[in-house]
Give the backbone structure.
Amino acid sequence: MRQRLADMAVFAQVVESKTFSAAAQKLGLSKSLVSRQVSALERSLSVKLLNRTTRRLSLTDAGALYLEHCRRVVQEAEYAERRLTQSQSELAGVVRVTCVQAFALRHLMLPLGDFQTKHPEILIKLSCSNRIVDLGETGFDVGIRMSLAPDPNLVARKLAVNRKVLCATPAYLTRNGVPRSLDDVATHDAVVFPPLAPKGRWTFRRDGQPHAVRVKPRFETDDMDAAHAAVLSGLGLGVLPLYVAAADLRLGRLVRLFPELPVLPDIGIYLVWLPNRTRPLRVRTLIDFLEKQFKPQPAWELA
């Protein structure tokens, strides 16, 4: 199809220039190549488009009919290229973003609002999902991922470390006692978010080594906001991302337990996108803007 479009453009230029030589000069091609392309077009269509003599060229009836369509197709193709070039270089259009809901609600909406205030011609389409989506298949321009390491098939910038905290409400600790050791944690009720409790265990780094604690689930959910709400309601101890729990810790609604023992695994928060050298300016601008929002230290780490 691409070659056919090229041949149509050459044919239209030959008719406009009235000779193969003049058309070749305008197109920056050799006269012989221009002639071959027109001949190839005629063979593919099984019809003669031009009457050729030593003195002049003229259109056949079929050629005159085909020329009308060629001109429209070439004009549309040129217009499409101009629009595409324009869309790649202007701060306008749609940027599609995917992010987990818990992070988007707490830490993405305000920056996106500021971004759209600065760039009102850009429309952000945000999709919140707890599942990892394929950026290529779903058409997203940018994703925010929580993972051990970024997908090797994507370009990634690390925004922050996704620290987790073991915490509970003051009321729960008053009723059930404060655990004094990790062994005590196993005796308490637990609010479990399975991705942070693989095989029903919470793992901590103690003396430089992983130390796993089997938990006693009282409530389990696959939604981080539901897990957060369950911990706040006093159902048990819970491991939550610091970006979720920071405000509650600061206000005293939650108490952090064993702050000296990091919760494993070490997970990063990454901004990811498909490798593409022709990435539109609006997407590049959003990527740079978001990276600056979380550097050098994200707001929840200052709580």
